[in-house]
Amino acid sequence: MNRTGKYNAAKGVEHHYNEYKEFHQREIEAHICASFMEMSGMNNLSDAPNYDIPNTDVPREDRRKWFLELCVQYVNKFLINFEVEPFLQASTDTFPCRIEGCTKMYAHHSMCVNSKHPESQLSQQQGSQQSDTENQTPDEDYLFNYHSSKLSFGLILMEFNDAIKEGDGERLHDLYKFALVLFKAHGKVKYSYAILMYLVQIESFLSEADAHNLKWNRFYNNHGRVGGNIPLDLRMEQLNKIVKTMWRSLGANLNEKSATQLANTIEPMEQILNTIDRECEITDSAGYLSKGKPETDVEIIMILKKDLT
Predict the structure, then answer these.
(1) Degrees (nearest 5) of the Cα angle 175, 176, 181?
(2) Same domain, 207 and 271
(3) What is the mean pLDDT of residues 71-88?
(4) For bias kind Low complexity, which ranges apply (predicted)?
(5) Does 115 map to a domain?
(6) How many whole angstroms separate alpha carbon 164 and alpha carbon 147?
């Protein structure tokens, strides 16, 4: 954090969320670059990859297809390090009873294991011993598993941030479905319940117009820039900051009546302030928190990670 100039991020995500969020994003970008370099056989940024990159003479659609195939290869190597077919087969197939001579079929493997046959106890013991033998992995790469998990989680957060910046309510809706499983699997019951209620409202409770409004009316763009949306709760925090500033200006005259009057004038007051700034040619400091190029921070983090490993 100190090498990249993110000094405030060292205080933790509880105290400086925005600063830590930006540092974490730079770190994930460094993970992506480092893993791509490893897949391409590159030791440093000046090396050439071990595959041919299509030049600009190749049609754009062919270049897009080539890059998509490269990304699929990257995902299969660093993110999906297990076989998907057994899980798909297990979700569709039925399981025969393990007792010899029994013709029963079970929809789930757990039902097959916990069957109430008289001979099931011996079969369960044999099955558990066999499963323990199969699950033993003596050569597990813990360092690779850590970086793979961190990269996977970081890409999910980047997908959330990108969906918010682009104002893509449909993509955010799909990400909520994925987050519901993650929260439930890690015991975050309140978060999973909140997402479940959001999904139920859109799919069942609300009308079509209200469901569309709930899905898409979740962003705010103050400057009209492409990819410049922010969440509505962040917008509410900005308005609260303006209200508190006006309340402090009242001093000893602050009471319930005056506070309510000022709160009701927050939007016209903000428009007046923006008009004054525009006429006085005062540029708004919109953008990222840190200065400088993010490429430099990513390169520094990549060098540090290479030295540590």
Answers:
(1) 100
(2) no
(3) 72
(4) 120-131
(5) no
(6) 26
* Tokens encoding 143: 């360092």
Q: Which domain holds residue 207?
A: 167-217
Same domain, 245 and 275: yes
User: What's the whole-number mean pLDDT along residues 167-188?
Assistant: 90
Write out pLDDT tens, residues 42-78: 888 888 888 888 888 999 999 999 999 999 888 888 8
Question: Based on the domain organization, do 80 and 182 belong to the same domain?
Answer: no
Query: In a 10 Å sphere around its CB, with 0-12 CB exposed, 13-18 middle and 19+ buried, how is residue 275 labelled?
Result: exposed
Buried b (16+ CB within 10 A) or exposed e, 23-45: bbbbbbbbbbbbbebebeebeee
pTM for the model: 0.69
The verdict on residue 91 lying in a domain is: no
Tell which residue, 210, 218, 228, 224, has the closest CA to residue 170: 218
C-alpha to C-alpha distance for 223 and 240, rounded to whole angstroms: 19
Say if residue 66 is in the same domain as residue 155.
Answer: yes
Residue partners of 104: CB distance under 8 A and separation at least 6: 96, 97, 115
77 shares a domain with 24: yes
Residue type present at position 181: V
